[in-house]
Amino acid sequence: xxxxxxxxxxxxxxxxxxxxxxxxxxxxxxxxxxxxxxxxxxxxxxxxxxxxxxxxxxxxxxxxxxxxxxxxxxxxxxxxxxxxxxxxxxxxxxxxxxxxxxxxxxxxxxxxxxxxxxxxxxxxxxxxxxxxxxxxxxxxxxxxxxxxxxxxxxxxxxxxxxxxxxxxxxxxxxxxxxxxxxxxxxxxxxxxxxxxxxxxxxxxxxxxxxxxxxxxxxxxxxxxxxxxxxxxxxxxxxxxxxxxxxxxxxxxxxxxxxxxxxxxxxxxxxxxxxxxxxxxxxxxxxxxxxxxxxxxxxxxxxxxxxxxxxxxxxxxxxxxxxxxxxxxxxxxxxxxxxxxxxxxxxxxxxxxxxxxxxxxxxxxxxxxxxxxxxxxxxxxxxxxxxxxxxxxxxxxxxxxxxxxxxxxxxxxxxxxxxxxxxxxxxxxxxxxxxxxxxxxxxxxxxxxxxxxxxxxxxxxxxxxxxxxxxxxxxxxxxxxxxxxxxxxxxxxxxxxxxxxxxxxxxxxxxxxxxxxxxxxxxxxxxxxxxxxxxxxxxxxxxxxxxxxxxxxxxxxxxxxxxxxxxxxxxxxxxxxxxxxxxxxxxxxxxxxxxxxxxxxxxxxxxxxxxxxxxxxxxxxxxxxxxxxxxxxxxxxxxxxxxxxxxxxxxxxxxxxxxxxxxxxxxxxxxxxxxxxxx
Length: 678
Hints:
Region (Disordered): 145-165
Distance between the termini: 26 Å
Organism: Allorhodopirellula heiligendammensis
CATH class of the largest domain: Alpha Beta
Protein name: Arylsulfatase
Strand content: 15-25%
CATH superfamily of the largest domain: Alkaline Phosphatase, subunit A
Radius of gyration: 25 Å
Number of domains: 3
Structural class: alpha+beta
Keywords: Hydrolase, Signal
Shape: globular
CATH topology of the largest domain: Alkaline Phosphatase, subunit A
Helix content: 10-25%
EC number: 3.1.6.1
Oligomer: single chain
Largest sheet: 10 strands, mixed
Number of helices: 13
Strand order of the largest sheet: 7-6-5-4-8-1-13-14-2-15
């Protein structure tokens, strides 16, 4: 069950405190939010998480690179060292982030690049509905429709052909790559890739523009324009870099001096020189910290060191460029006087890759970009899914802290919703981490869950445990339970046991504790059935398993109802609010009527008399969401359907807890259940 949190009085006081300087009568100003997402940057690539330790060790056989701006952000903010991505590859990871659901509920799973992001509430719709200006800048890859051939001059698809285009998913403005594959190269004009600015394709004007610079300059311009045009309106910016992923191209010029509003990267608006680093030669500028680096290639101090291979210089320079871009953004906020009340998140979409798109291949072993873990991109070991995050919010989060709270990308939607003063949509799986950030209120533990398929094998790196070198991936699954993580590779059936590791004491996952923890094994087996729903586009060997009932001792007769003021444009996850009225009833149908302006949450148990397949049905025109255990069985919360809404689920005999959220009419919707002996 998604944990119960409220928009707390403590948070309200905190927001008031950050705005009192404006005037005694000023209303609380929700924070601006900037979410920075990197592409294929590993946990081990953060200086503050791992690279700085390599530098301190000074082992010339173990090269390091630096992220000084990110390190400073960590000093001024909170490190989330146990933050996970939803899936170990970009498209499903980004889909879960945007939808606020884990991979057991996302419509984009496995390797479904360019698939349409479900027409449901997103970070964009929620923040816009809360009164924010919204923008997505950078890589998208969730547009649906025809990806098309972007080199063709005729019949080129555009936003009108892409049902999942960002401006159709809650974002007022979009600038960036639409197609997943376009993000594999970082000079749009020179590489023949399309960049869209809302409804206009603009790559012809982008000569010499390196995408990390381009997206940062555009983001700075958007922030400055928002602050100038409407300084009292909060903004939400989703800035999704396409680097250091794929083709390891270099910037065209040194990073401009100064940073901020008047320095650093600048958007000129001039065709052919759209940004102020476009004058240089594409793919030419190597950061001086890495240009002449050498290393002890044979781990023998008696032999001469050799230069870093070019591909690793490039990788270090690309990460450093992101770091410079981050510093430029933070300086812009300070110059505008809004950094105190702007929350900035920096994280990455999955673990490090082994790609360069150059003749010389790249391996993440050179810098140990997977950090203290095993696994890379497309693995569900910690190195593939634990990505970490850094959060900076001077006006709301005390600095220089390390949080060991487990969390996952789908937790950002309810977190940002709480900061904006609204409850998240009912379909949301995440848990707000505002109490952890502000040190105010009770923090509930988020649910960390991953499912993923990949037909390749894990790399055979000597740095990894021998048992998993070259291991078959195929169907994979991971779930966190307290300090334990359960992992399954090459899953053949639900009976397959989880390997269980205490990732707090054993982050490299070297000691399988499964034989010592039969109760945890059973909890994990039950939980992964109770929290997810099958998706026909990504079949799993456990899709047809019966969902286990709860113990009879935990069941209570009848149902409970609570009625709430509907203060959001969507059907809210009402657990997060305080009810106007509540009570008990014998059945769902006996719950009281509500006003058309209200919403209601009904909780109880379905008593299933026999194992089998069951179908739940809601009539047309109903706005409602039904959850069984933690699985969303019916989702008509975004918009009422003209047809019946149905959901089929395999249930074991016994008691199954449910939560029915509904609004938009005065009478309780007629929920029907059909199945064996019902």
